Task: structure prediction
Amino acid sequence: MFSPDYFWRYSRQIVLHDVGVEGQEKLKDGSVAIIGLGGLGSQVAMSLAASGVGHMRLVDFDVVSTPDLHRQLIYSERDVGYAKAEAAANRISNINRDVRVEPRCEYVSEENARDLVGDVDLVIDCTDSFQAKYTINRVCAKLKKPLIFGSAIEYYGNVATFEPWGDVCLECLYPELSDEDYPSCAVAGVLPQCVQVVGSIQSAEAVRYILGSPTLLNTLLFVDLKNYALDRLNIAQNPSCPHRANKPLSTPRVWEPTEVCSRNGRRQLLMVLESKPNVDEVYERWVRLGDAERRGRLAVEVRKPDGVYTYTAAGAILGEVDTRIDAKTAKQIITQLATTASQT
Result:
């Protein structure tokens, strides 16, 4: 039975016919993994925390950057440079201290996906990479975890719910797409309100799934905020689904320096270290290279004349350099930093 204070806090949703005391108990006992803490994930996390979902695992390898702030409302200016998982967890704890929040600074891969989702009730995909989405889809199929998919770009977004161990999965809808063939929000842009609407729909669908009445199972909801339109499309089983055919996933070459975006005079690079050295150790090694600073528990930043580089507990080095530095030189710099970070 709820305490009077708990009942009072959630009274406006408990009164809803589809929720009630029994439904609020389900939310309190529910556990979700939110993978990707950008525009969608930050909205989903705040909404589910406010709704009283009891356990939230927050997964992201990245750090907060200034261009994130216009749409990722979970963060503030003081969070810039900090690991998103840590900054988001801190904010969630301030929103609702009753939520058990678990920050996981991880780069999603086939090697760690099972660990990230294996013990939760529901997985919410808020990533911006097709390769990550496919990896999440397949592990959810293996472990029989329901999956709520979301994406947003420009003025448009999609939401769908899958039980991917059944007849229909994400790869039935979007088979064998490549990140290189589609623009990112850094290139195409994204309306802040678009990610907030799409993320709100994902969180509403998560609540409905936990309560036992999902609306978008095997259904794609297309959100058009340019024309204020919503359309629904039933998703059928795809006989050419790569997952059903057991086609191997292509592996992004993030173990090598990879340019992920160049825009507005800045070149952004990513490299993931297989060794995942401790953040404290990397700080001790990088402090000799320049103006190094700890950024919370999960990140360390070093500033050099050619750019800013951040190492996170995910084993990821993120570089932001001036485009006047050519790509080859930028990759050499990040490789040198990786070598220093991995020294024993």
Remarks:
- The chain has a mean pLDDT of 93.
- The CA atoms of residues 17 and 25 lie 14 Å apart.
- The longest strand covers residues 147-153.
- The chain has two domains: 4-234, 258-342.
